[in-house]
Amino acid sequence: MIKNIIFDFNGTMIFDNSIQKKAWLEIIHNKTGRNITEEEFSLHVAGKTNSDTFKYYLPKYLSDTQIKSLSAKKESIYQKLCLQDQTHFKLVKGLSDFLDWCISNDISLNIATASEMNNVKFFFKHLNLAKWFDINSVSFNDGMTPGKPAPDIFIRGMNKIGADPRETMIIEDSKSGILAARNAEVGKVVQICEKNTSIHLLGADQLISDYVDLLMLMS
Question: What is the pTM (predicted TM-score) of this model?
Answer without folding.
Answer: 0.88
